[in-house]
């Protein structure tokens, strides 16, 4: 950690509340396993119904986890009235996502008033080993004063 | 279309067979709606259980569709014994993915023996309008002779 | 062209004036060969002093041209008092950049108040043929009211 | 460093020899300031003729340095008869590249037989401070047996 100071004391509550409204996270069974200023971790147990044609977790799910972890890492440092949107991201898939579970770790590289840049790493846990299987570089945006858009 | 000539007459059958083995596609309800040489389209009806915190289709699902369309666009031009893997992609999210359905169109930009570069566009259909909501640039890889890896 | 309407009648003059202040463009000998609303083209004659170890134009120069074309395509649609900055880009290098000259074509995919997304294509001209050698997807940002930052 | 073991004892000589053939590096005045297995650093003194319209080092030059550092970081781990090519990269520009000099540090994230993924960080040195101004995620490829392509 680079010791980011959140603008809002209640950053963890805001992140957890917003995450709980992401229905996709419930649909795939993802859990928020760490929330710190500028750093968020999401964990997913392996599920056969999330696989691609070779039986690995689909790259899209891997990206979903890393993108969400990056988005909330950025959001944890934003003002209380801001909403976070993903502008874009790029992901490299390094190894098949297999094992018992996946852990996505999103970290803020550089926070900004409008644009926050984050990196995301995705690890697969298998037989006690933790292996880096994907890495992401993402651009998040803080949106304010847009009606109906919170969190 | 740039008039790509497939290496394998049965490219459509191979793409459809591989797609049918992607359990995630069934889980989210995505359908293969077009298979041509170097061009593949996937369609998803809007579903509330795939949304993020603002009620839009989650960016991860948008990316999943575009990535899969790009992967099969590349695969349609590969040799019969090849498997396709996503090396990496980058996606820009342009507008919230809302509406009745999403259409992901993947096209080969440049095919290659090892590396194939594709572009993907994601459209949202709403009230008869078709709007570009995301755009992707992806790198796919042809894998051969890797045991157990087909399609 | 998608028929973008510039906010500022003098968009071409603004683009040309800003380009003329880019000393790197003079250093490498790049010329602005087309300026339209949301579309800008930059041309570079092949020069041996811009090559990498295999004698091709260095990927960094290819990216420089495409990035600059994308930036000015975005800038052509911005308000008169805005400055343009590159947030990020991703480039795929498809073929060696060889030949008599390189042409970078930047086009706006989607303009926005803050964020504008562009695509860039780089072509090599050789013996009368025009070949796509690189493709870019870029995110540009409009900056206003920042002291000393114009163009 | 993650303790990568080079395939070739003479990796440093190969990197330095290849770098010396990059005429662009001489043209812009870039120097190879560190070569370790999987990690390469390139340094550039600020030069006014490499600037963009606001007087900062052009993003294209920043990318050139980071791309080259990543490419040689990958190359340092490749077989003696391999050549390295950039497949693609994505760069986020975090802050204006100003100061006395720029340092690009390229590191291998994951080496592979065909594909090597690298990260690159670009720092600006100014008045004794070292500031991260750009970050890159890059895909490099090892090419063998292609006539005339070495280094």
Account of the protein in words:
Four copies of one chain form a homotetramer. Chain A has 151 residues and is α+β, with helices and mostly antiparallel strands. Chain A has a single domain, classed as Hotdog Thioesterase (Thiol Ester Dehydrase, Chain A, Roll), CATH 3.10.129. The first copy, chain A, contains three helices and six strands, in the order H-H-E-E-H-E-E-E-E. A six-stranded antiparallel beta sheet of chain A has the order 1-2-4-5-6-3. In chain A, a hairpin with a 4-residue loop joins strand 4 and strand 5. The two termini of chain A are 23 Å apart. The model of chain A has no long low-confidence stretch (mean pLDDT 94). The interface between B and C is medium-sized, with 13 and 13 residues. Strand 3 of chain C pairs antiparallel with strand 3 of chain D.
| CATH top level assignment of chain A | Alpha Beta
Rg of chain A, please?
15 Å
Oligomer class: homotetramer
Q: What is the end-to-end distance of chain A?
A: 23 Å
| N-to-C SSE string of chain A, H for helix and E for strand | HHEEHEEEE
Shape of chain A: elongated
CATH topological fold name of chain A? Thiol Ester Dehydrase, Chain A
Helix content of chain A: 10-25%
Using CB atoms under 8 Å apart, which protein chain pair has the greatest interface? A-B, 37 and 37 residues
Per CATH, which architecture of chain A?
Roll
The side-by-side strand order for the widest beta sheet of chain A comes to 1-2-4-5-6-3
Summarize the structure.
Chain A has one domain: Thiol Ester Dehydrase, Chain A, CATH 3.10.129.10. Chain A is 22% helix and 41% strand.
């Amino acid at each position: 950690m680079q010791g980011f100071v959140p603008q809002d004391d209640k950053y963890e509550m805001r992140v957890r509340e917003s995450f709980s409204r992401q229905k996709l996270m419930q649909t795939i069974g993802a859990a928020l396993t760490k929330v710190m200023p500028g750093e968020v971790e999401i964990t997913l147990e392996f599920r056969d119904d999330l696989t691609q044609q070779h039986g690995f977790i689909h790259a899209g799910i891997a990206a979903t986890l890393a993108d969400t972890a990056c988005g909330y890492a950025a959001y944890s440092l934003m003002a209380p009235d801001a909403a976070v949107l993903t502008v874009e991201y790029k992901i490299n898939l390094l190894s098949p996502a297999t094992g018992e579970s996946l852990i996505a770790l999103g970290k803020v590289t550089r926070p900004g008033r409008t644009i926050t840049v984050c990196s995301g790493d995705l690890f697969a846990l298998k037989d006690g080993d933790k292996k880096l299987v994907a890495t992401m570089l993402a651009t998040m945006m803080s949106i304010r004063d847009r009606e109906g858009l919170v969190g």
